[in-house]
Design brief:
alpha+beta; four-stranded antiparallel beta sheet; 13 helices; 9 strands
């Protein structure tokens, strides 16, 4: 149980809303409770939270005649935020001797840990260790593969925790950990053994690398989620780790991977860190340095603005600068592709069929995507 000042700060930071202290009569608070008894399912327990005149009030300190409440000021609350507040306030007001009787569901435990991660990320304490107060800590010592799932078009409250957990469990074929970070953002921790292929079932000559295995599972998971859950979504993945310590750091890395993927490869929905090394380097270059570089290298401002040329170059690089494979993928004749490449060479002075020039053009294209 934390002190009131720390609790207020935590609520304000995690909800992005300001708390305003008010004192009302205890009789009035009890009247609000009575009026809230008939509210629809999913609304927090009226013992600790009441919605009155379209405003949420949190029970802060109840006395015999006067009760202190906190009025939430700001945006409306999501279903997950309401659930988290209900649980925190219930535990705060529960007598210490009765704490063992407080039943915390898996969904509530998952949400509390998710908010713990977000809080430590905001504090910059990315190496934090899961506290002993979380009963799930014992689960966190196993090596897991982290996935970050962001739903693009979910409704305000989104599909439920139980629905998504059941879907993921059926895909991975075993128990996993699902942590909601926000209404549209979920951290999935899959035990590493669930995605490993048995050596007895694998031919030595066709044995996949770890990155190939992870990529395969990521592709399958995306297809499942896209068709069975929320439609369009974004998915990033990381290397195996033990989540008992450093989860905020891993989430930061997953978010960075997703940001880089969405910035440099806008049509992709799956973002893999081992395919974004150059993008990560380019993103770290100061904007002023990027602009100076482009001014020196690009002789014509519109050299790389032609849609056909950009599409040709993207496909050319995606297929390892193979003329035959690129022509096939673009559904054009080989000579047509050679004509386009010659045109790019004439306009830019750079021949992408030469290694040095190809590297330079690839770098220019990446810089254009992040240079204002």
């Amino acid at each position: 149980m934390m002190d009131k000042q720390a609790l207020q700060l935590q609520i304000e930071r995690l909800t992005g809303m300001r708390l305003e202290s008010q004192h009302i009569s205890t009789a009035q608070w009890e009247d609000w409770i009575s009026a809230a008894v008939g509210v629809k399912d999913g609304t927090p327990s009226p013992r600790t939270m009441v919605k009155h005149d379209e405003e949420w009030y949190l029970l802060w300190k109840q006395g015999k005649t006067t009760t202190e409440v906190m009025k939430l000021q700001g945006k409306s609350l999501s279903g997950q935020e309401l659930q988290w507040l209900e649980l925190v306030l219930l535990m705060q007001h529960q007598p210490k001797s009765a704490m063992d009787t407080v039943h915390v569901t898996d969904e509530q435990q998952a949400y509390l840990i998710g908010q713990w991660i977000i809080e430590h990320m905001r504090d910059g304490d990315t190496a934090a260790e899961i506290p002993d107060s979380f009963s799930w800590k014992t689960k966190m010592f196993t090596q897991t593969v982290p996935f970050l799932l962001v739903a693009e078009h979910a409704h305000r409250d989104g599909p439920g925790y139980k629905h998504l957990y059941k879907l993921l469990k059926s895909y991975f074929g075993g128990e996993l950990i699902l942590l909601p970070l926000s209404d549209k953002e979920w951290l999935i921790l899959c035990p590493e053994q669930l995605i490993q292929v048995s050596e007895a079932d694998e031919d030595v000559e066709t044995k996949e690398t770890m990155e190939e295995q992870l990529t395969s599972f990521c592709l399958g998971l995306y297809e499942l989620v896209a068709s069975e859950w929320v439609g369009d979504s974004q998915l990033s993945i990381g290397y195996p780790f033990a989540p008992v310590k450093g989860m905020p750091s891993v989430v930061s890395q997953l978010r960075e991977t997703m940001y880089l993927g969405r910035t440099f490869h806008v049509t992709d929905n799956i973002h893999l860190p081992w395919e974004l090394h150059l993008e990560r380097l380019v993103n770290s270059i100061p904007d002023a340095v990027r602009k100076q570089f482009l001014q020196r290298v690009v002789t014509k401002a519109d050299s790389f603005n032609d849609v056909e040329s950009l599409s040709t170059l993207d496909t050319f690089f995606q297929h390892d600068c193979s003329v035959s494979e690129t022509a096939k993928r673009l559904y054009i004749h080989r000579n047509t592709l050679l004509y386009r490449l010659d045109k790019i060479k004439h306009e830019t002075g750079l021949d992408v069929r030469q290694f040095t020039d190809a590297v330079l053009v690839k770098l220019i294209l990446l810089l254009y995507k992040v240079t204002k």
